[in-house]
């Protein structure tokens, strides 16, 4: 079977002609009733052929759309006759005349649906083997097959459209930032390894054997140095690299819209960030985002939504009920640091199986189980109801506004776990119950993040954003006395429950930077070795500065409605970080390694 | 001394204030007589301070320029008094009133030279240690010191300007290509190693131990795959990587304006390439490039200029004189494959020492020596004149249009050497004699390159551009019979003697691509292993396509007049491929290497 189509394809190659002096006049998404009577030249792929009433019809496809093309023996007998070789995905150029489709044959789903082009002459530009999957949006091929033949996958209208939207979004960003005085400045890819947060990708140096470059996790240090360099406003659509085990929505390389500004405070950076997003959503998908964006403090987000990137497209908030039930007979409540409830309006119809699934789900976030109460007409149906006194029931009813038909979920324990478990449960139930309007775009700022977070395992503070984030001006002195209390000058932009951007005002004073390293338990020597050049730079007249970085891939997912990050990247990697098309990574010649002064470690077999 | 300035700087830190609600109203390059009387807020660096007549003058500098700022005790006594702490490169914000400079004090060299701003209030935003070199264009610091303190070097107006021009050029390119239907599509950095031409930078894979990614030498294969994918018109400002020993004007990472188009021939690609360059030169430095560009075949370029990137800003052409002198008594001429002359008008005054220098110079290109003749009033002064008959002298005089006062240089031997030696000699003499108008921008196309070049050492053909370049349509059949004769569908854009761009129509037929690999002596298995995915792709309906890539760094050098590529890149590497600021590359922790499954090779001491 395979053989046969290859044979036919080879046989048909004799019909291939060079382009010669043929020049395209229109794309396949352009011709309408306005163009009837015009002589046109179109080029593209044969999407679909059907023979009907002695005529041959081809849907000719290019990046932009489809045009119906007709080969008629009355128009050009030879052209019609050779058109019999045409098969799916053959490449052709046609000259023809635009005419209206016959009465009743118009297709209102297509821009070009009112017309067809009757062929006066044509050239076969290339043949094609039978493709391993059909070039159409409703597609059942496995993702691995699609990735191996990515050049065919990208021909599908939806993926082609994603690439077009990505381009338009990037252009919109660049225009906006250019108009606002930002310079796009390219920072190096071969940089210094400063393991901090994620794992670096390393690049062995041949000239300096035994030494390594690292691919940048972000241009953070370079953009701050550009501010010290007086560049004032910098941006870059920067590729970033993190060698982490990949989750479903991660890629080893991803793109960041990276911005930095001098002589500004948090308000000015946020105004630019909002402006950028507003312009992008307006220009690319004609959605108006609010001006200004609503804001929420980190405390409020954690309190009501349990996560620092609240999805505000639906209500159903978390509520602290510690004071109401902490004296109950339910043992778990008595000892808990925090007890929160998630009341679900009209959720009392959930089956036992659904509740079991949700219980499994919250375990991902460290929960041991999931307490629940169904509010029925005559009773509270619940494994824990018996532990609750009348007063506690009344307290819950009032606090949570409970009504017959609701279900309430509870989580008790350490605050981190309670918030994560219920916050994510909220999202899951919101999705399950169809509470989310997927056409809505809800954007907001989350502000006043803590500067540091306590790492209980390592018994030390980590920087919540990164170690260059400035403390809130009112909290600078706390850095030395009570670091855990310090708020930061950091802000995240959240859209539909995704953190699409985040930034901060940076430390521009070398003494404060040293205090910060001290609070993070980074010794003077270590700080010097890793970030000496930054500490130096801060001593030579660093201006106040701050910035923001957006995840471009995530923004494009929201703009296109794509479900997978792999659908918005031209040549993505699998979760094993491989490219199925080129088969990267691959083994390399020993001479290449020898030149680099490295060798493979023997595999230890255990 | 060092101690003292650090002490003062630390002492002065107590004056530092936060920005608060101060917002800049203007840049330091904006205020003119039009603004007199306005209240403004400026921020920047103290470029220079002088105290005069009880007043303190500061040249306040930002990315864009300078504004003179005056602290006067009459305006605000306290502000004036604290201003005494101000030192070079301190960062400050001032509120003030624009006023004309006093009679006779205007500085016509500055945009802001007619005005000054008298300070009503100010804030110290940061102090600075004494910089290791002065922030000014006439600079005598070593390049290594400048690279170590790159964030100070970039404050110099010339370098800041280079970054601004680079940004504007990149924006101009993107707008032009966007308007012409190109999509900017990002291709991967973690790709497959296909050693071909230059050496790859490798990235060890942690997830797939023993395997390596390569950083792209160019997105060549991906852009062709994007054409197979129907993307129609692609571009990218793409970082490219080559692990080569660095010459003065090379960097291990550099930026390419990378374009590819479907359904076009050479003329259409060249039209886009010209349009892009014309728009860039017009928009960025207001220079008009010709429409269309002049063209020269590769044969003509080699014949007249000896190089494939002729500098046409001056005449003084190479001339083949083989037929005139090949029978002379000069032994070297008798056996030479090619004899060429370079007549230099009015060059007879060159000293023996100058000629000796030029003789040394041509040896770089493989020449053994340099024959010359000075045309004097009464004689031909020359070591070789005695070997030339009257007829040969008459022949040379006529062929070369020799006149008294000229000098002629000769080179005889293999064509490659003769052309390289005389072609580069021409450039050297043109520069020495001031024949080059450095304000001129001369752009042209060189076309009809040979497809293959013979590698005498390896006794095989190499691709002159790359193995995907299409043969000239008229020469396709020669590929199997006489590959050395095949012209290619390739073209270079040359400006002022630099190859700023190059491209070709690509092979879009898998059979022709296989013939090409055969001509290059790349076996079927090797071709399959390295480029199997491309060969596959060509069988699934690849459209005719071609493209062009420009060296952005080189273009910016021409636009800015920079002499070094390091002056147009924000954070360049040295010729040892190191970054003196961050000290990359560096050693890394053994645990990092262990995770990657590699180790350092023991150094073999010989």
TrEMBL record, chains A, B:
ATP binds at residues 242-244, 251, 499, 551-554. It comes from the Bacteria. Keywords: Aminoacyl-tRNA synthetase, ATP-binding, Cytoplasm, Ligase, Nucleotide-binding, Protein biosynthesis. It comes from Desulfobaculum bizertense DSM 18034. Its EC number is 6.1.1.23. GO terms for cellular component: cytoplasm. Residues 165-572 form the Aminoacyl-transfer RNA synthetases class-II family profile domain. Belongs to the class-II aminoacyl-tRNA synthetase family. Type 1 subfamily. Aspartyl-tRNA synthetase with relaxed tRNA specificity since it is able to aspartylate not only its cognate tRNA(Asp) but also tRNA(Asn). Reaction proceeds in two steps: L-aspartate is first activated by ATP to form Asp-AMP and then transferred to the acceptor end of tRNA(Asp/Asn). This is Aspartate--tRNA(Asp/Asn) ligase. One of its GO terms (biological process) is aspartyl-tRNA aminoacylation. Homodimer. Pfam families: GAD (PF02938), tRNA-synt_2 (PF00152), tRNA_anti-codon (PF01336). NCBIfam families: aspS_bact (TIGR00459), PRK00476.1 (NF001750). SUPFAM superfamilies: Class II aaRS and biotin synthetases, GAD domain-like, Nucleic acid-binding proteins. Residues 220-223 are annotated as: Aspartate. PROSITE patterns: AA_TRNA_LIGASE_II. The lineage of its organism: Bacteria, Pseudomonadati, Thermodesulfobacteriota, Desulfovibrionia, Desulfovibrionales. It is found in: Cytoplasm. It catalyses: tRNA(Asx) + L-aspartate + ATP = L-aspartyl-tRNA(Asx) + AMP + diphosphate. GO terms for molecular function: aspartate-tRNA ligase activity; aspartate-tRNA(Asn) ligase activity; ATP binding; nucleic acid binding. L-aspartate binds at residues 196, 242, 465, 506.
């Amino acid at each position: 079977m395979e053989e046969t189509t290859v044979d036919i394809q080879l046989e048909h190659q004799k019909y291939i002609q060079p382009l010669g002096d043929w020049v395209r006049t229109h794309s396949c998404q352009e011709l309408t009733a306005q163009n009837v009577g015009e002589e046109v030249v179109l080029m593209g792929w044969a999407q679909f052929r059907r023979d009907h009433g002695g005529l041959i019809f081809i849907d000719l496809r290019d990046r932009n759309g489809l045009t119906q093309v007709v080969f008629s023996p009355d128009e050009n007998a030879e052209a019609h006759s050779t058109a019999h070789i045409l098969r799916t995905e053959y490449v052709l150029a046609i000259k023809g005349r635009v005419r209206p489709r016959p009465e009743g044959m118009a297709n209102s789903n297509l821009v070009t649906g009112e017309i067809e082009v009757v062929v006066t002459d044509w050239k076969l530009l290339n043949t094609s083997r039978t493709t391993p999957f059909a070039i159409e949006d409703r597609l059942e091929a496995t993702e691995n097959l699609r990735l191996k033949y990515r050049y065919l996958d990208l021909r599908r209208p939806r993926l082609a459209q994603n690439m077009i939207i990505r381009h338009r979004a990037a252009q919109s960003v660049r225009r906006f930032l250019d108009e606002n005085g930002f310079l796009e400045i390219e920072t190096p890819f071969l940089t210094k390894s400063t393991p901090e947060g994620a794992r670096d990708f390393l690049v062995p140096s041949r000239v300096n054997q035994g030494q390594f470059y690292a691919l940048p996790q972000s241009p953070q240090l370079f953009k701050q140095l550009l501010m010290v360099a007086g560049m004032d406003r910098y941006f870059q659509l920067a590729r970033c690299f993190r060698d982490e085990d990949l989750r479903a929505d991660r890629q080893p390389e991803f793109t960041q819209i990276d911005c930095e500004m001098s002589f500004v405070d948090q308000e000015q950076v946020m105004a630019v960030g909002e402006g950028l997003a507003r312009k992008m959503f307006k220009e690319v998908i004609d959605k108006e985002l609010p001006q200004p964006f609503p804001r929420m403090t980190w405390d409020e987000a954690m309190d009501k939504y349990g996560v620092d990137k609240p999805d505000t497209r639906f209500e159903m908030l978390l509520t602290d009920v510690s004071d109401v039930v902490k004296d109950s007979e339910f043992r778990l409540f008595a000892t808990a640091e925090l007890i929160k409830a998630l009341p679900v309006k009209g959720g009392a119809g959930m089956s036992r199986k659904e509740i079991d699934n949700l219980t499994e789900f919250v375990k991902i976030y460290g929960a041991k189980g999931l307490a629940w109460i169904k509010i029925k007409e005559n009773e509270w149906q619940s494994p824990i109801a018996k532990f609750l006194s009348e007063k506690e029931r009344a307290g819950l009813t009032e606090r949570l506004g409970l009504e017959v038909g609701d279900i309430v979920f509870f989580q008790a324990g350490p605050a981190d776990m309670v918030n994560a478990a219920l916050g994510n449960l909220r999202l899951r139930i919101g999705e399950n119950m169809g509470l989310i309007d997927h056409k809505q775009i809800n954007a907001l700022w989350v502000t006043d993040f803590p500067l540091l977070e306590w790492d209980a395992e390592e018994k030390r503070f980590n920087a919540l954003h990164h170690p260059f984030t400035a403390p809130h001006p009112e909290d600078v002195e706390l850095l030395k006395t009570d670091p855990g209390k310090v708020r930061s000058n950091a802000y995240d932009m959240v859209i539909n429950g995704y953190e699409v951007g985040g930034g901060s005002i940076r430390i521009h004073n070398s003494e404060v930077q040293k205090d910060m390293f001290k609070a993070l338990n980074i010794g003077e020597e270590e700080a010097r070795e890793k970030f000496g050049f930054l500490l130096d730079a801060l001593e030579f007249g660093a201006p106040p500065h701050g910035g923001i970085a957006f995840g471009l891939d995530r923004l494009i997912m929201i703009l296109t409605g794509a479900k997978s990050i792999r659908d918005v990247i031209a040549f993505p990697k699998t979760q094993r970080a491989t490219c199925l098309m080129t088969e990267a990574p691959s083994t390399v010649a020993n001479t290449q390694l020898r030149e680099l002064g490295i060798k493979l470690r023997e595999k230890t077999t255990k």
